[in-house]
Amino acid sequence: MSGSNHPVAAARAFAESVLALWGAGGVEREDIVLVVSELVANARLHAGLPRRLSLSRRDGIVRIEVTDPSPTRPVRRPATPDRPGGYGLLVVDRLSTRWGTDIGPCGKSVWAECPLRCYRPEPGSTTQSHRRLARGRFEPGASG
Question: Is 111 helix (H, G, I), strand (E, B) or coil?
Fold first, then answer.
């Protein structure tokens, strides 16, 4: 599958599968998937392709991290009706409890934290298998 939205679609599918394993549902799940979509779309638009997406959970919080090769911090620009775009970081800001950027030697990681109060592991699953899937390397730009 190719096309300009492939990384976003792949990232959404990854997030959906992780959240399903964690038993997330309803509005919380939709909000987290939307934040994933916005962070990956921003990385794609402003840095080429995101390098990695990871989801982790702890104490009722899901942390979403998207890394890309650009050292430039994202800036929330004003959204205006006469210009498309500009809503991505506004959406992230509204749906997450907090978000930020960590700059490293090879680019940056933009992260957001969202509440996940409805965690229910699937019967027979283990926390370790959830952690391995959620922290596993996912490359949205890879074909497959």
Answer: strand
